[in-house]
Amino acid sequence: MWGKKRLRGLCNRSNKKEPVVVAHVYESRRCFKCFRNLSMHGITFLNVTTMKDCEKMSKGRLVFVGLGLYDEQDVSLKGLQELKQCDVVFAEFYTAKLGHFDIDAFEKLIGKKIEIISREETEKGDKIINAARNKNVVFLTAGDPMIATTHIDLRLRAIKQGSSTQIIHSGSIATAVPGLLGLQNYKFGRTTTLAFTEKEYFPTSPYSVINNNKKMGLHTLVLLDIQAEKDQYMTANVGFELLLKMEEKLRKNLITADTIACVVARAGAPDVIVAANTIYVLRNQDFGPPLHTIVIPGNLHFMEIESLELCAGLPLDARRKIPKL
User: Fold this and answer.
1) Crossing angle of helices 302-312 and 173-181, rounded to 10°
2) Using one digit for the tens of pLDDT, what is the confidence trace for 239-259?
């Protein structure tokens, strides 16, 4: 193996436009990364026979395909093409869930079986990464593939082992909710998630995120906890109760019964519900099956207020409680 000092010297020489040729015996899987980094400095490599084993590393491929928001028909044509020509298909539905997904029909459409992996298997990642060493692998997720940090980690691991990666994007809750409500996307601040409480577990960080966003006049997208393995999906009603409990604990007059909030239920579905009102009203409203999402607005532009009236049913008495800019 080449030492760091010697490689640095080679890089310095290449920057001086001196021709540098390196013949390297591949002794570990890190070699691919070394050669890739050196290539960026203009170093040329001899095509020696010892490279054959390492060349096999780069034959694997991991493609992240987003399924969109509601059902299997939301997948893009490009994603469908990748699914039909790949070797292996994995899918996870713990970070997000489609409103309706007929896996049997989808398997017939793509011509192969889909292996649904658990939260533990996804976070560990070994099954996916190992398959991508020498196979063409597709990893299916609801929404857009790169919203979840777990998926970003999988991509980085695949790149480090020499597998090529590709992302095929799709509809995401992060863009669908602002669009359905008519709120301006660039006026959203940091996103937060409300988690189910346990005996001694009651995180109040979502309250802080909303507070910080409010100080800057920004809207807050509040995602609601999913525990797919327990078949538990937090409703907007439970989410509002948690926010009100945080207010009781922190007492900054941020979340009250008169606070204007928004709910989007089943974004992308034919029976989507979009509502805007005071928390007092929304906490008692039936929004139907999951998934639900909450938005706590910041400073509202007059066009955003009009959108909430026309698109989300914001009543006149609630509108009067919105401070004028």
Assistant:
1) 90
2) 999 999 999 999 999 999 999
